[in-house]
Each structure stands twice: as C-alpha cells, then as structure tokens.
Amino acid sequence: MLYPQRFTQFTKEHADTLAAMLCGLLLFLGWFALHLGALGLALLLLPAAYVIGGYESAREGLTTLFKEKELDVDLLMIVAAVGAASLGLWRREYYLIIDGAILILIFAISGALEGYAMRRTERSIRSLMSLTPDTARVLRQEREEEVSINQLKVGDEIVVKPGELIPTDGIIVSGYSTINQAAITGESLPVEKTVGEEVFAGTLNGYGALQIKVHKPAESSLIQRVIRLVEQAQTEEPPSQQFIDRFERGYAKVIVVAGILLAVLPPFLWGWSWETTIYRALTFLVVASPCALMAAIMPTLLSGIANGARQGILFKNGAQLEKIGKVRAIAFDKTGTLTTGEVQVFQVIPASEYTHTDVLQAAAAVESGSEHPIGKAIVQAARDLDWVGAVEVQAIPGQGIVGIVKEQKMIVGNAAFVQQYVIDLPKELREMAQSLEQEGKTVVWVAHGQGDGYLVMGAIAIADEVRKQAAATITRLKKLGVEQIVMLTGDNEETAHSVAQEVGVDQVYAQLLPEDKLDIIRRLQQQYQTVAMVGDGINDAPALAQASVGIAMGKAGSDVALETADIVLMADRLEKIAVAIHLGRRSQAIVKQNIVVALGFIMLLLVGNFLGNINLPIGVIGHEGSTVLVTLSGLRLLK
C-alpha cells in the first residue's frame, strides 16, 4: 500500500499546482476578453477560473463545515468570491467577477505551496529508506542464500563482504573489519569492530569480511528508528501553526456571522432597503476578506527567500525564514559541520636526526597501498614529495602496517604496535604525542629497521580539520543574541571537547546516537522554545526534523539531511547562519508593519461600508490597493 499512496499524493499535489496555473491563465484571458468588450467569452473564461482554482478550497471548506462543524477561511473566500461575482452580474459591474477570481487564485497558489511541502517530507523519508540494501546473504545449512531484509529472523547469521552496506543491526560472530559509521554516529574515522561487537544497518563495511548474527528484528534497527523519528518530528504541528489554524477559523466565524447579521438586521434597525442591505453585506464580505493580511506575510517571506538564495542560503519555505529570526539556541553537529569531515595530517613530529620530509616519505611509501582513511591522509600530505611504494606490505588490523622500502624495513602504526619493535619511544616525542591525543588527535608512529632492531623516525598527528570560519561564526551568533550554542557529536569526549574549545561553543554532548541528539533538541526546546540544529549527516536527520529550524550543509550534507532540513547552506559557509538570522529578523519586522497597515485598511473600509460612505467599486479599490501596498512593502527584502 505504501507506493500507491505515495503515487496518489504525488499526482494530487501536482494537480493542485496545475490548477493554480490554469486559474491564473483563465483569469488573465477573461480580463483581456472583458477589456476588448467580448463579454460572452469573458463570461465563459472567468467562471472556468472559479471552478478550476476554487474546487479544492470549496471541497475542503465544505468538508470542514459538514464533518467538523467548523468554518474556515477557505469557505469564507469562496463565499466572498461568489458573492462578488453574483453582485457583478446583478449590477452589470463585471470587474467584480475578476476581483472574486483573484481571491480564488490566491488560495489556489497557497494550496500548491502546501503540496510542495508534503512532497519534500515524502522525499526525505524515501531517501532514508534507500540507505539499507533490500537483501542480505543468510547462512543456512552452511550455504549462502540471498533473502529479502523483511524475511530475516532473530538468530539468522548473515555475511557482509568488504565494501558492502550492512543490511541490519547485529553482533559480529566472525571476522574483523573497520566500519564507517559516519551515517549513524557522525564519527570522522571508521571504527574497528571485531567478534562480540554490535554493528548497525546502513553503515559501510571496510576491508574485512564479516559474519553477523541478527539480534533484533529488521524493523527495530537503528536506521528504522531514525526513519520513524523523522516521520514523527515532521508531522508534529508546532504551537505557532496551531495558533494560526485557530485564528483562521475564528476569523471566518466572526466574518460570516457579521455578514449574516449585516444582511438581515439593517432593514429592521435602520430602515435600509433590502437592495442596499444585500449590497452592503456583499461589500462587507469583499472588504473583510483577509487578502491584504495574506499579502502582508507571503511576499515578504518570498522576498527574503530570494535574497537568501543570492547569498547561498536556501530557505525551503517562508515559515522557516520567520522562525530563524526567533532562534534563541543553536545546536551544531561536529563532523562535517564545525569540521570539514575529512581527516588530514595535522602535524609531523620528526625525531632529532630526521626531518619532516623524511617521516612523511617513509610513512607514505608504506601506506601507499592502504585503503584506511589515515593511510590516505598521509599519502595525500606527501603527494608533492618523491617516494617509492613499499613491497611485501602487510596490514595488521587495528594496529598498523609494515613493509619494505628500498630494502629497508618500515613500520607505521599506533604506539603499542611500534613498541613491539622499538624498546623505548623517545621521551620528548612521547610527551608531544600524549598532548596531541588529549586534544582529540590520532597519532601514528613511524620507524625503520636498523641492524637487528628498529629506530623511531617520528610521529604523525591526524585530525579532522576545524572549519576556518567556525570560531568567527560562533562569536557572531553570540553578538546577535543567541543565548545558548551547543555541540552534538557521536565522536569521543576528548575530540569533542578539543573542537568545542577551539570554536567557543557553550556546551558539549559527545558519544551520541541519533535518538540522543533528538532528545537534547527537545530539552533545548523546552528551555529556549525556538531552537536551530545545524548538521550534515544521516545521523542528524531526526534532530534536524525536530528542531524549530533545521540547517544542513549543502556540499558536505547527505541527501537525507538536505531533504529533512528547512535551510541549506549551499556552499557550506557557516557564517551565512548569521545572515539568515538577520534576514529572519528583518522579515519579522516588515511583516508586523504590513499587518498593521492591512488591519488599518480593513477597519477603515468596514467602517466606511457601515456608514454608507463607500460603494462596492471603492471597496474593491481599497481592498486591492491595500493588498498591492503591503505586497510592495514586502518586496523591500529583495534589496
């Protein structure tokens, strides 16, 4: 049932967009025909615009009326539009039909925008679902059998070959490998896993074949929990949206009741004629319709979106532009967000009798055939140096690598591994290495054979580089008045605190799973209400969806993060977050100004209509004039 439902929703939303376009086209042609004096053609085209553009709003309004016993703005707009058309036909003032068609067009466009938001939600869920393979190799009677993920049972043993995605959560029962868990935990380096340790669906197996025992149903895997969390967070309606829904229905009730009273009471209270009464009642429905109020918001937000796009900030909807200006707390992911997400050689520490070049050349020669990220980083750092690849290379998983370079034995690895060959590491180098490790760096040692033993050449520190603009961005955000800035990461405590100290965040949460990040966002929302989350990975998706405003890195971000987030930084420039907040605050100020102007015009027109000082054409001019005025005001954000 899942795919047919998606297909139905997809076609319906595109039909809404098509209906809005056709409504606008028919409205224009009808106006043109009326202008040329082709009344018959105009009276064919304009009703068609009403039907095509207003069908969905009429259906929803009537459904709400009869099923929920509630009135909403959809129904109010249809009544106002039909009332304007009826009055136009009655008095032969045909431009009133065009005014009603404009009301219909506005609501048709609104429905199409809502359809776009729903499609975006669906795409984010589909992207998550594509992270795991559809099948797995199961060992049954000592033979491999490929079965659907849905057919896996607790206790099944599956085989995962090097370079393959792990299909479901499980416990390793045989084998050793490195697992790239960046999609789940955000760790910058692959994690070494062996017998007895847990692996997660959607993570990438490294160089070793693994035999994994399924210890929970596939639907209970971590990635499936991430999917459910994203679905839940995206469907939860924020309090502000609930308030808007209540306001719309309350406003509609007030206007409808007032319109009915105005259509019935004046002949008995003030002796108005029925023609005058009906005329004033229909005028009331037109001038009281909230077109100016709607125009007070959307043009401003759309202008802000366009302004942001020119600066590499993609706002996915206007509501998020408004929300970003209210942000009081921001949570940053570490890997790929505050850092570049790519491990690099941070520092080379040569022993006294060797040079920086000697150490890098020797390490690169041995690591030239390695697929490990650390080895790749060393080779990349030595790309401009002259060296010859090692022979008889042998990797010792979790420890290091050995080889022969120009008939000389070489070893590269962690301290424990190198100490198997070198009796004592130089004290000065050891102290520097310990200091770097406390800062969250990974240190590998390099030694070469000499006589019957080995001699340490030096050490190389590897680290995920902090983005150059990260610290300045944090400082700028604090100056803008953001009250709390935290960092969320699946990485270890030492690395997390080292990065946090360098960039200047207020609080650090380390060794987190996706659901942990989600919980922290919820706690921050309880304290600060409007909270932004900045991330790039699949592991950030639930937190991005839950946050009041989710911000994703455009270049480094995963497809899921990009689809889930409300704002995308297209060039990964963190400093643009401050620009987005400034745009959000300006949009709020302009929206408030426009609302005051719109309400002022509505009140003035209502009073004038009640006192009999305006006729319907003047009411339409005032109504449409106020709409144009606030629209032009909103366009100021294009500067």
TrEMBL record:
Keyword match Membrane: yes
Compartments where located: Cell membrane
Keyword set includes DNA-binding: no
SUPFAM superfamilies: Calcium ATPase, transduction domain A, Calcium ATPase, transmembrane domain M, HAD-like
Keywords assigned: ATP-binding, Cell membrane, Ion transport, Magnesium, Membrane, Metal-binding, Nucleotide-binding, Translocase, Transmembrane, Transmembrane helix, Transport
Cellular component GO terms, alphabetical: plasma membrane
One Pfam family from the record: Hydrolase
Matching InterPro entries: ATPase_P-typ_cyto_dom_N (IPR023299), ATPase_P-typ_P_site (IPR018303), ATPase_P-typ_TM_dom_sf (IPR023298), ATPase_P-typ_transduc_dom_A_sf (IPR008250), ATPase_P-type_domA (IPR059000), Cation_Transport_ATPase (IPR051949), HAD-like_sf (IPR036412), HAD_sf (IPR023214)
Topology class, membrane: Multi-pass membrane protein
Family label: Belongs to the cation transport ATPase (P-type) (TC 3.A.3) family. Type IB subfamily.
Gene: cadA
Record's protein name: Cadmium-translocating P-type ATPase
Highest rank taxon of the organism: Bacteria
